[in-house]
Amino acid sequence: MDYGDKEDFFMEFGADYGYPNGPKSIDEIRATEFKRLENGSVYLDHAGATLYSELQMEAIFKDLTTNVYGNPHSQSDFSTTTCDIVREARQQVLDYCNASPEDYKCIFTSGATAALKLIGETFPWSQQSCFMYTMENHNSVLGIREYALSHGAAAFAIDIEETVDHDGLSRSPETSMNVSLHPVQRRNEPEFAEIEPAGNAYSLFAFPSECNFSGSRFTLDLVNVMKKNRARILENSPSSQGHWMVLVDAAKGSVTQPPDLSKYPADFVVMSFYKIFGYPTGLGALIIRNDVAKLLKKTYFSGGTVAASIADIDFVKRRQGVEELFEDGTASFLSIASIHHGFNLINSLTVSAICRHTTSLAIYVRKMLLGLRHDNGASICKIYGRLSSKVSSHESGPIVTFNLKRPDGSWFGYREVEKLASLSGIQLRTGCFCNPGACAKYLGLSHLDLLSNIEGGHVCWDDNDIIRGKPTGAVRISFGYMSTYEDAKKFIDFVKSSFVLLPNKTANGNLLIASSIPLSKEG
Fold this sequence. Notes:
Elements: H1 6-13, H2 26-33, E1 42-43, H3 54-66, H4 77-96, E2 104-109, H5 112-122, E3 130-134, H6 139-142, H7 144-150, E4 154-162, E5 177-184, E6 202-208, H8 221-228, H9 231-234, E7 243-249, E8 268-272, H10 273-277, E9 284-289, H11 290-293, E10 306-310, E11 315-318, H12 322-326, H13 333-349, H14 351-371, E12 381-384, E13 399-404, H15 414-423, E14 426-427, E15 429-431, H16 436-443, H17 447-455, E16 466-467, E17 470-471, E18 474-478, H18 485-499, H19 507-510
Parallel strand pairs: 1-14, 3-4, 3-6, 6-7, 7-8
Antiparallel strand pairs: 2-9, 4-5, 8-9, 10-11, 12-13, 13-18, 15-18, 16-17
Helix pairs in contact: 3-13, 4-13, 5-7, 14-18
């Protein structure tokens, strides 16, 4: 289908787009809750940070100006009010992931990154431990590797590819995965391996529920595979012995598909609230299994985490509650009070409807980009992600990551695209998005390429977008619950007018806008 106008779009996506069964249509939401976008701005970086609703902020302001919230470590009535709000917020987070409080606790942190750091520094590493993670992981997950290696543990990345039958259907997770291992060199070789048998060691497997580079979703069945049939992934490796725990980075994935912990009992899940409903920033959560929390080894103690301490002798008695033990200092209680209003907003639309709405826009943009051709018939766009099955499936999140090509097959630099988009009032993101494994995988960059680029001076966020004819990153657009067809259409029109060479346009004429800014740097 051409999708030349909104009517064509609605013929295929009308059932999913715009909350037809919700309390408000998408047009009403934009008109009443996002009036600040009426100036024509197109915001397409929801994977970086989604936008807060004006009505959401009004509710938060009314709450904070009506109620008095005291420090939860005090004993006043206002402190009791705060404790009640924090307790209710914890339950809302657990409910969002269908996690029973009998099995899980919610620990508030300063963000998903802080939650991941907490796991890394308290995990019971040993020289027999192993940290395994998928190639497609955020730097904040890769950082856990530092703790593992410093304790003499092994570490390796794995690349998981789905196997599809000849009829195009995927098989069960236990039989449909091709797994390749990429060992990381140990920092400290075990000198006395017999000190602790491998069967007693604790190891950790980490994967994202949704890749923030490509939008590809990982099946949460990986949780059950690692717990019940990990030899399927680890084969005959000695690392398959011992106790394996599973960490799900749901900072991106929980926006449209929060993990159901009643079906996929991961040991750790990390979340970030500004990714879900825009405000507050600087607040995340670590959802942790109760039995696993007892195994973590916390060194530091602080205000709020101790039952008693003595200043001039080596004595400290720690609190026993999971939240009290791991939440250092005074919790960000006003921010925690604010997430109640964010969840109310999301629940009014429902996560499933948000998923369908944002996915419809992403599929539309993918199809439109893949259909664009230069006058010589050459494709203009390379889209990254797992697109082996039908593009109309929901296996990818509301992210479209790509690079654009000239008629001769050479690349437009992603920074060039970003600068032109900004001039057109379109806000998007470019680079590797703090996901080096996915970036290298999808761009086809070898270790030699990566090291050569770094030695040549390339670092994150610079303008070196093409080196030796290869992109060093990509362009990413991402949709939120308030995104509209008009946002997507304006973006497609921008790509057409700025980068597609048509028969009635000369190359210089077609790229006139691009010539007004510096072109990509060649290394």
